[in-house]
């Protein structure tokens, strides 16, 4: 995929990308890796902040009209946003951290229509600056998640209709491209896009707080550094690529009828626990 080639050519990485093409053949796609600013250091955007300072994490979710996040419950009766919540809880097991994860549109904020066909990382950061409900401070972490229409901008400025979402590296800004989420299933409002949406949020949140080896240090050899900040385990939500068209359905199927939606493997969970 071209973003990997871009990465290999030492162009500074600006964001982590989740690719629709990858999702179609697998589950969780390819993300640009970044080590320039990463999640290192002790800033409010660092893994150190999230894991050693923060006691409360709030997801600040906004959306454009027509890009509404999915809400409601899975076939197993689990609230879709409990998928995000369960995965956050799994990463922070053993720590005293509370989570504020919205589960209804009333708990999220409708923003003005953006009328933007492509989104650069600068556009995403500008959106966050305009609409975020405050930044992280003290012991309170905030991550801004925006659901928008339009597509990620390729380096040449054209639309990349394969990117589901990205996390702007070294920041707490995540952007989700709703039309790509909807296109991930034959039924744009069926369970597949809903699980894809949550999986993407989980994946990008993990990047934002320092995975894999992007601030949160490794406790075992599972960093797929060839593909950026990803996990080498194909059964982990942080795997850059699964092979075969049946894998996506298989991956989602594991969670569709389960109350347990933790998508990280033990290697990633152990990194979190030990950090
Ligand atoms: Zn990724
Ligand atoms: Zn993993």
Could you characterize the architecture of this molecule?
By secondary structure, the chain is of the alpha/beta class. A hairpin with a 5-residue loop joins strand 11 (about 225) and strand 12 (about 230). Mean pLDDT is about 85; it is low at about 1-15, about 20-30, about 30-40 and about 240-245. The radius of gyration is 17 Å and the shape is globular. About 30% of the residues lie in helices and about 20% in strands. Strands 1, 2, 3, 4, 6, 9 and 10 form a seven-stranded mixed sheet that branches. The chain has a three-stranded mixed sheet with strand order 5-7-8. A two-stranded antiparallel ribbon has the order 11-12. The structure holds zinc ion (2 copies).
Please describe the structure with a list of short key phrases separated by commas or semicolons.
275 residues; alpha/beta; seven-stranded mixed β-sheet; three-stranded mixed β-sheet; 31% helix; 19% strand; globular; disordered N terminus; binds zinc ion
Summarize the structure.
By secondary structure, the protein is an alpha/beta fold.
Bound small molecules, by name, code or SMILES, are: zinc ion
The overall number of domains is 1
Q: What is the straight-line distance between the termini?
A: 32 Å
Number of helices: 9
- Average pLDDT works out at 85
| Fraction of residues in H or I helices | 25-40%
What ranges have pLDDT less than 50 throughout 5 or more consecutive residues? 1-13, 20-30, 32-38, 242-246
- Structure classification: alpha/beta
Main pleated sheet: 7 strands, mixed
The global form is globular
């Amino acid at each position: 995929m071209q973003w990997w080639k871009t990465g290999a050519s030492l162009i500074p990485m600006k964001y982590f990308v989740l690719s629709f093409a990858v999702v179609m053949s697998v589950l969780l796609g390819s993300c640009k890796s970044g080590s320039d600013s990463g999640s290192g250091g002790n800033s409010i955007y660092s893994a150190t902040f999230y894991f050693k300072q923060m006691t409360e994490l709030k997801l600040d979710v906004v959306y454009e009209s027509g890009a509404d996040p999915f809400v409601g419950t899975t076939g197993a009766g689990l609230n879709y946003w409990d998928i995000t919540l369960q995965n956050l809880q799994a990463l922070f097991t053993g720590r005293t951290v509370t989570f504020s994860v919205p589960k209804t549109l009333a708990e999220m904020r409708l923003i003005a229509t953006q009328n933007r066909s492509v989104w650069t990382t600068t556009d995403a950061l500008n959106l966050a600056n305009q609409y975020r409900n405050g930044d992280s401070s003290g012991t309170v972490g905030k991550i801004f998640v925006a659901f928008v229409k339009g597509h990620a901008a390729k380096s040449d400025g054209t639309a990349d209709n394969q990117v589901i979402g990205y996390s702007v590296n070294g920041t707490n800004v995540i952007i989700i491209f709703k039309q790509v989420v909807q296109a991930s299933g034959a039924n744009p409002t069926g369970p597949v896009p809903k699980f894809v949406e949550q999986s993407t949020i989980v994946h990008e949140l993990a990047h934002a707080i320092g995975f894999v080896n992007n601030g949160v240090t490794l406790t075992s050899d599972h960093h797929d550094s060839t593909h950026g900040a990803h996990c080498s385990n194909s059964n982990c939500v942080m795997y850059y690529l699964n092979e075969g068209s049946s894998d996506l359905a298989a991956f989602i199927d594991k969670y569709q009828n389960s109350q347990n939606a933790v998508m990280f493997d033990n290697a990633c969970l152990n990194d979190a626990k030990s950090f």
